[in-house]
Amino acid sequence: MTVETDIQQTSVANETMETAPSEEARQAEPDGLIVIRRTTFNSIFIAALFLVLGIVIGAYGAFKVERANRSWLTDALNEALEGQIGTITSGQQTAQTDPDPRVDVSADDDPAHGPIDAPVVIIEFSDFNCPYCGRFARETLPLLRDNYDDRIRFVYRDYPILGDSSLQAAIAAECADDQDAFWDFHDLLFENQGSFNQELFIRFGEELGLDIEQFTVCQDDPATRDEIGGDFAVAQRLGVSGTPTFFINGRPVVGAQPYEVFQGVIDKELAAVAESQSSVAP
Fold it and tell me: What would the pLDDT profile of 19-62 be if each residue is shown by its tens digit?
């Protein structure tokens, strides 16, 4: 064997010792153990850290947007209520001292259906985002219309208390009313709760054949917001604490009660009116 051959064999042996794990190392590694290189671990750790930071930042951003929306709603309604604070305060004091649960509630010039001289007037304070209001609009109101026809007049008044989209929906419905399409727009809103945005309002307006330019101009008109603020002020004066709240000839009915509850109150009012008319008949 030559010296050159000995050198080559020695070199190969050294390389083998350097690259192959030692017997101790092989014994120290449990079977099935996955070994992650430090650089790979660092990359995974950094990616996970950025993912968590992204979630936190996104949640904080959503919180700020929601807080800004609520602040905008509060500011808008407060602006509309500035000139009516005295009326609200005096009305609340009267409600607290009056033992008669029947209160004087104006229908104002809000959207209504039914004869203006109907013996029973039902005034609802409602929010288009309110699920209970939606249930009443979809299930109970059609029955009242069918069964009492021209004996009741139903009036819708705004009480948007569930966020910015509630106010925006109320504004859009008010503008639909300007084009004699309130009740159709009202029904579309209550059939599509939880997804209110301007694109949806425009689509509803197009479906109903509204003049879209007039519709959008109306939405930006401060007078429209003031109209809704007026309803809000009346609800506050009456002590309305939630939606829906109804006044049937001034008698309060709170919540989306079963049809039979409305039927009972209406029938009593109709009976009282009939008795009153018979007592003054010649």
Answer: 444 554 444 444 444 455 666 656 666 666 666 566 655 555 54
CA end-to-end distance (rounded Å), the chain:
145
Burial of 251 (0-12, 13-18, 19+ CB in 10 A): middle
Centroid of chain to Cα 52: 29
What is the domain count for the chain? 1
Tell me how far apart the alpha carbons of residues 44 and 25 are, in angstroms, rounded to a whole number: 26
pLDDT in tens, 209-223: 999 999 999 999 999
> Which run of H or E residues covers position 76?
helix 38-81
Residue 41 falls inside a structural domain:
no
Contact 129, 165 (CB under 8 A): yes
Does residue 263 sit within a domain? yes
Residue 171 domain boundaries: 82-280
What does the alpha-carbon distance between residue 254 and residue 88 come to, in Å, rounded to a whole number?
20
- Cα radius of gyration rounded to whole Å, the chain: 35
- Global pTM reads 0.67
